[in-house]
């Protein structure tokens, strides 16, 4: 067995072992059934919630917020990253703040966003965007800085204009790093949306988790959590597969 296959087999083995523990531990009475329900019951309850349409509006709201926040992060993060790369002095000034950005408790500003935008999806989108955009900015700067000098010399020897140097040399060479920023931003967007909905929202999968918890609907709560996990794993797997297809990376 090759090293890559052995790594994948180990990963799947750990996942299956974890899922088995979630099924077995509650059934053996090792934990309070209110605290944890068996995996099979989570799956069945999720199926019922999807079948009767209970989660439909919540899923639509969450997906809409994720797509909106992610798209906003991309269309703002890329140009900001390029601008920061070009403006050396500005980058040196902002670098310490950007590198420590995720230590800032962004959710502390959620009441402010509610006061400005009101209840609804907009505060959720703003929080998720704020979490995601910096990852794209930083990875764009890192990628453009990491362009091999030999490629730059080739472009200059061909007397390419500044625009052609960027579009033909810098940006293509930086795309692996930028794609890493997209992956990070996707994760931060999901976290930002779900957590914001959990804290204060009137609709969404995160809201449904919090509502179920507050009303002791434990099976509904775990069913929604399972849905979030499945979506997160599917999103990450899809991005990894796309990355391997584009850049031939192994993961």
Automatic annotation (TrEMBL):
The keyword Repressor does not apply. One of its GO terms (biological process) is transmembrane transport. It is found in: Cell membrane. Residues 59-239 form the ABC transmembrane type-1 domain. It is a multi-pass membrane protein. Keywords: Cell membrane, Membrane, Transmembrane, Transmembrane helix, Transport. GO terms for cellular component: plasma membrane. InterPro entries: MetI-like (IPR000515), MetI-like_sf (IPR035906). It comes from the Bacteria. Its main location: membrane. The chain crosses the membrane at residues 12-39, 59-85, 97-120, 126-148, 169-195, 221-242. PANTHER family: ABC TRANSPORTER PERMEASE PROTEIN MJ0413-RELATED, ALKANE SULFONATE ABC TRANSPORTER-RELATED, MEMBRANE SUBUNIT. Belongs to the binding-protein-dependent transport system permease family. This is ABC transporter permease. It comes from Solirubrobacter phytolaccae. The lineage of its organism: Bacteria, Bacillati, Actinomycetota, Thermoleophilia, Solirubrobacterales.
């Amino acid at each position: 067995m090759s090293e890559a296959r052995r790594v994948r087999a180990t990963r799947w083995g750990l996942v299956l072992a974890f899922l088995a523990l979630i099924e077995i531990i509650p059934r053996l009475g090792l934990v309070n059934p209110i605290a944890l329900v068996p995996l099979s019951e989570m799956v069945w309850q999720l199926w019922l919630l999807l079948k009767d349409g209970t989660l439909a509006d919540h899923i639509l709201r969450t997906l809409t917020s994720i797509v909106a926040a992610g798209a906003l992060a991309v269309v703002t993060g890329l140009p900001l990253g390029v601008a920061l790369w070009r403006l050396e002095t500005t980058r040196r000034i902002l670098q310490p703040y950007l590198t420590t950005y995720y230590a800032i408790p962004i959710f502390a500003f959620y009441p402010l966003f509610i006061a400005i935008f009101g209840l609804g999806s907009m505060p959720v989108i703003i929080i998720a965007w704020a979490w995601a955009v910096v990852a794209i900015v930083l990875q764009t700067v890192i990628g453009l800085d990491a362009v091999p000098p030999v490629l730059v010399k080739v472009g200059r020897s061909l007397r390419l204009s500044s625009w052609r140097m960027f579009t033909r040399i810098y940006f293509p060479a930086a795309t692996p790093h930028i794609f890493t920023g997209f992956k990070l931003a996707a994760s931060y967007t999901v976290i930002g949306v779900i957590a914001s909905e959990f804290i204060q929202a009137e609709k969404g999968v995160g809201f449904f988790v919090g509502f179920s918890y507050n009303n002791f609907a434990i099976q509904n709560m775990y069913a929604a959590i399972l849905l979030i996990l499945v979506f997160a794993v599917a999103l990450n797997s899809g991005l990894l597969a796309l990355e391997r297809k584009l850049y031939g990376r192994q993961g």
